[in-house]
Amino acid sequence: MLYTILLSLLTLFAQDAEPATAEAGAATAQDVAADVPPPPVVPGYGVPYLVGGVEAPEQPHGRSTSTVTRTSRFQPVVKKNPYSVNYSPIQSLVTVRGTEQNHVMGIGLVTGLAGSGDSGEAAKQLLQNLLLTRNINLPLQSLSSKNIAVVRVEASIPAGCKPGQLLDVRVSAIGDASSLQGGTLAMTELTDITGQHVYATSSGPVTVGGFTAGGKNATATKNHPTVGTLPNGGVVQREIPTSVVSEHGYIYLDIKVAHDTFGNVVNIAEAINQKVPDELPIAEVTGDGKTIKVRVPDFVRPAEHIAFLNHITRQEVETDNLARVIVNERSGVIVMGGDVRLIPGVVTHGSLTVTVAESPETSQPGAFSQGQTQTNDRTELSVEEEDNGLVLNPGAATLQEVVEVLNVLGTTPRDLITILQAMSNAGLLIADIRRM
């Protein structure tokens, strides 16, 4: 552009000056042109690129990439062989009917937020109702919700908890509040599922195990700032009646879901009968195979019921090694029980990895060139497929052999989940697969 301007000025000066010879005028033009630097060279063109006397901007030439990397396998070494027989205390395998925890819940209001509260009308309405309890009537239009948030408040009351005892309370935002950090929970009633009976109340500062900070173009967040706790922030107001012995003199021991096998239930009943001798067996398995019904002997006084229960549940019994496989496809976790077995068969696997990278480029025309900005799509596609042969599964009779056979496949945990499901459908895996 500077080059063009100098040439134009040279022409004007030549018209106003006295006539000179052609040789002198040419020499003058050459001298001026020699002092003007040449126009820049645009990378990729090799020569000055001028459009209408204006240099065009440099065009983009970068591209985006996307890769999938598989890390090396980490194989821990376990030198100790697994136990063939496991013993566990009865109290770890069962729950005593009547000692369950009771969940209470309420809807509360967190105040004192630094502009990170709800933006809807629900928070304003709840704040107006809270002020009405203090005989303060303000119109809804005069209230602001940027410093308040509607939250769900919940707690668990253990069996036998007396009025006045403290509870840990959890709060979670149910609106569009961005953070509960620095807020204080207003007095909230916690009721049962019907909402008619108040069993606890809660109030106090909210503890958030995270934070969020940001500006217009960047934001940093740690953990979940919309969920918080109130350690000892709840107070029990009403006792929930609890009794471990029924009106007919029986104690019911319900087997936990993780250990609900017929063998465990029978072993527990037999262990109790051997521990407490009586004319008739005091423990028997119910018809559904999930509960042990224990009759309290006549020589046990009512004041000794808890001591009797502790006496029979502290003894250890032999437990089953469950043939169960727990898989979590979201996190790639696989957990196997001790009685998992494999039947001989053939297995093969081959993972397919598809990588797609989109990197559109924008072409910008030069100034005063009357061109239009144009976006050109650029796609980079990469497909990688493993070529693996058949792997002979010789079968496995112990958990250690199962691990050794599966390690031969050399797959990732997520691929192994798919293989285990396919082996179960084919009848090669003797186990119950449960998905988390």
Question: Could you outline the blueprint of secondary structure elements for this entry?
Answer:
Elements: H1 2-16, H2 22-35, E1 50-51, E2 54-55, E3 86-89, E4 94-96, E5 102-111, H3 121-132, E6 149-157, E7 166-173, E8 184-191, E9 198-205, E10 211-214, E11 219-222, E12 227-236, E13 250-255, H4 262-275, E14 283-285, E15 291-295, H5 305-313, E16 316-319, E17 324-328, E18 333-336, E19 341-342, E20 345-347, E21 352-358, E22 361-363, E23 374-376, E24 379-385, E25 391-393, H6 399-409, H7 413-426, E26 429-430, E27 432-435
Parallel strand pairs: 17-27
Antiparallel strand pairs: 1-2, 3-16, 4-13, 5-6, 5-8, 6-7, 7-12, 8-9, 9-12, 10-11, 13-15, 14-15, 17-18, 19-26, 20-25, 21-24, 22-23
Helix pairs in contact: 1-2
Key phrases:
alpha+beta; 436 residues; single chain; 7 helices; six-stranded antiparallel barrel; 20% helix; Alpha-Beta Plaits
How much strand content do the residues show?
25-35%
Main β-sheet, spatial strand arrangement: 5-6-7-12-9-8
Query: What share of residues is helical?
Result: 10-25%
How far is it from the N-terminal to the C-terminal residue, by CA? 68 Å
Q: Tell me about the biggest sheet?
A: 6 strands, antiparallel, barrel
Number of strands: 27
Domains, number: 4
The mean pLDDT is: 79
**How large is the radius of gyration?**
39 Å
Which residue ranges are poorly predicted, with pLDDT under 50 across at least 5 consecutive positions?
Answer: 17-27, 42-52
Structural class: alpha+beta
What is the 3D form?
flat
How many helical elements? 7
